[in-house]
Write a structure and sequence with these properties.
heterodimer; A: mainly beta; six-stranded mixed sheet; 12 strands; B: 11 strands; 0% helix
């Protein structure tokens, strides 16, 4: 079946620290992979995506590389800001279907 | 484009009442979805639709109904509200381009059943 596993939160970092949020997946075929961000009181927004192995998605200083050999799509940012405080969701969409599967989310708090 | 809009933003229901959560998208997307998000949890799919007139159950459909008479609208109906349905409900739509899927979310409806 299809599933996404994210690292447990919450994560608290100081401003300018390096961020990694781990995400691994199980899927049939060749899924597309996504990171969504949810700011307090808002809906989910697409942060970045990758559609095939070795693709790197990037946006707003965040990056994630589609690693088929390790079935992973870890989110990284070199220097976090207070404004990055949010909940981050890893998700996949199977190549054979039109549903999306989300991880449980990782809450990030960045302190000045 | 307004994207995906949801109404109402907040609602308090008594046990046994019914209501409809509205969802509209203006991006001409074929696919639409309803999710619920419980506190500290991820999203669970309630129902989805791949086009007007076609709907299908997701992971947690019990207690809900949907219809899709137009491409734009995908309302979610709660017939007999129960406290277990207290949650935040998100509607989403997606397009398919070159085999890729990408979802766009509405701002959510926060529902409390007491």
């Amino acid at each position: 079946g299809n599933s996404v596993t994210q690292m447990e939160g919450p994560v608290t970092l100081s401003e300018e620290a390096f961020l990694t949020i781990n995400c691994t997946y199980t899927a049939t075929g060749y899924p597309s992979l996504f990171w969504y961000v949810q700011y307090p009181g808002e809906g989910l927004q697409l942060l970045l995506k990758a559609t095939k192995a070795d693709d790197k998605g990037s946006n707003k200083g965040f990056e994630a590389t589609y690693r088929k050999e390790t079935t992973s799509f870890h989110l990284e940012k070199g220097s976090v800001q207070v404004s990055d405080s949010a909940v981050y969701f890893c998700a996949l969409s199977p190549s054979t279907g039109n549903q999306f599967y989300f991880g449980t989310g990782t809450s990030l708090t960045v302190i000045p | 484009n307004a994207g995906v809009t949801q109404t109402p933003k907040f609602r308090i229901l008594k046990i046994g009442q019914s209501m409809t959560l509205q969802c509209t998208q203006d991006m001409n997307h074929n696919y639409m979805y309803w999710y619920r998000q419980d506190p500290g949890m991820g999203l669970k799919l309630i129902y989805y639709s791949v086009g007007a007139g076609i709907t299908d159950k997701g992971e947690v459909p019990n207690g809900y109904n949907v219809s899709r008479s137009t491409t734009e609208d995908f309302p979610l109906r709660l017939e007999l509200a129960a406290p277990s349905q207290t949650s935040v409900y998100f509607c989403a739509s997606s397009y398919v381009a070159g085999g890729e899927y990408e979802q766009y979310f509405g701002p959510g409806t926060r529902l409390t059943v007491t």
